[in-house]
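Re-running Murein L,D-transpeptidase YcbB/YkuD to confirm reproducibility after the cluster update. Everything else is unchanged from the original entry.
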Amino acid sequence: MKKVLAIGIAVCVILGILWVTLFNKKSDLTEELQTRLEGQSSEVSLKIGETSLKASEELRLFYAEREYAEAWSSNGKLTKLGEELKFEIGESKYDGLNPEDYHASEIELLFLAISDQKGKLKAKPFADLADLDLMLTDAFFQLARHLEIGKIDPSKLKSAWDLGVNTPSINYNELLNESIRKGSIKDGLESLYPEFKIYKKGREVIRDLDEKRKIDTLVWKTVNLKKSLKIGDSHASVPGLRNRLIFWGYLKPYELKDNLVFDPQMEEGLKKYQLNNGMEPDGAIGNLTAESLNNSPARLLDIAAVNMERLRWLSDTLRDSELILVNVANYQLDYLNKLDTVLTAKVIVGKEYNASPVFSAPMTYIAFSPYWNIPASITKDEIVPAVRKNPKYLAQKNMEVVTSSGEPVNPKPGDWSAETFPYLIRQKPGGSNSLGLVKFMFPNEHSIYIHDTPARSLFQLENRALSHGCIRIQDPEKFAALLLKDDPSWTSEKINEAMNQEKEQIVQLKKHIPVVIFYLTFWADSNGAPHFRSDIYNRDQEVLLALKGTE
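Result of re-run:
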C-alpha cells in the first residue's frame, strides 16, 4: 500500500512539474524579445540592423512590464492593432510629419516578409517578428511624442520662438497599454492632438492638397512681374496664371480668341482667389498675388507641414479661456473669449529687419494719451541726425528732451552727438504722437506693445510689415472697451475723453489677459477653408528643413 501511495505521489509531482513547465514556458518570440532587450546595454540605443530605435528607454520599460510578451502578433497571426498602427504611421503625413521617421518602409518590408495576403504568419524565423514588434512599438512612441509636442525643439531655431518649449504631459507607455486594452491605436494618437479645432481641420486640408498633388500636371514656373497686370493687359504669363486659377477651382475651363489677354472672366476668378487668400480683391496681379499663385500643391503641402508643427508648439500656450492672439504673418489681432472671436482687427507689424518677435505676456495696463518714449536706437539713428539738420525738428514733431527721471531739459549744442547723447527723447500726447491716442502694455523683454497710430490709412495696404517691431492696431477704441468691459464706469464717452487728454493716464487692468504673438503662414478655419499667407520674415524654410531632417 505504501509503495502504491509513493508511486502516486511521484506521478503527481511529475505532472505538477510538467504543468508548471508547460504553462510558464515563454514563447520563442517572447524569448527573442527578452534576449534582444536584455542583451544590449541600457546605455546605448537599440538597433535593428542599421536602423536605430529612438525610444530605447521606453521600449525596455514597456516590454519588461509585460514580461517581454509580443504586442502586435498573437497565436500565429498579426493583430488588427498592428495593422492599424501601420496605417496610422502612413496617415501621419496629414499631420505634416514624415512617415519614414516612424520606420514606415522597414515596417512595410517586415509585414511582407512575415505575412501572406490573408495576414497569417509564414514559417519565418522569430527574428523577423521581433524586429517588427520592436519597430512598431518604437514608431508608436516616436509618433506620440511628435504629435504632442512637435518634432522640432523651437528653441534651437535661429528664428525666435519665445513661447516656451512643450514637455510631454502624458506617459506614452501608459498610453500604449491603454490603447491596446481599448483596442484603438487611432483614438490613442488623436488624444495627443492640440486641443484647438483648427488642427484637425488642417489635417483635412493637407489630405485634399495631397489629392490635388496627385493629379497636378501644370508647370509651376515662377512668375515674376515688373508691373501689375490688370484687366485688358496682354502678357506671356497670363495663360499660365489662368490655368492655375482653373486648377484651384476659381475658374472653369473656357475658350478665348487671344489667350494672352487678361479678360473679365479671369478677373472675376482672381478676385475670389485674392479674397480667400487674405489679399485685397482688387482684381490685379501684383507681386503678392503672383507670389501666391506660384505655389504648387507640393509647395503648399510643405507650407502646411511647417505650420502644423507650429500649432503643436502652441498647444501649451493657448489654454486660457480669454486670449489676445496676434498672427504676425496675417497682420491680424483676434480677441478670443472661450474660443469665440469677439474682436478681429487689422494690425501693422515690424519690418523684416525689425521683425515682431514671437512670445507671450499678460496684458497689465492701458496708457491713454501716451507719451512715446523713443528707443535709444531710433534716437541715435533718426532723431539726433534730424535735429542736427533742423533745430526746429523737435518742436515740429511735438517732442521734448528729458532726463532718465522724466524731467524736461534743454540740451547744450555739444550734447547732440549720436554716439554720446546723454538724454532721452519723448513725444508728447496728441494726435500726431506716433503711438496714437492709446497704448496697451504687456511688459516683456522685447519692449513690444500694441498701440494706436495716426497713420490710419496704412491699414488699407496688403503688406503691413511697416513698424519698428511694435504692433499697431486699427480699432483701438473697441479694443480698449473690451479690456475694460468688466468696469461699467468705462463708457465709450469716457474712453474717448481719456484718449484725447494733454497728460498721460495709466489704467491698471483688473484681469491680466495673455497676449500671444505668433507666426502662422497657414491654417484652416472652423469651416475647413484653407488660408495661406506670405512668409514675410522668411521663417518657413528653416522649419521645413528641420522637419525633413533626421533627429
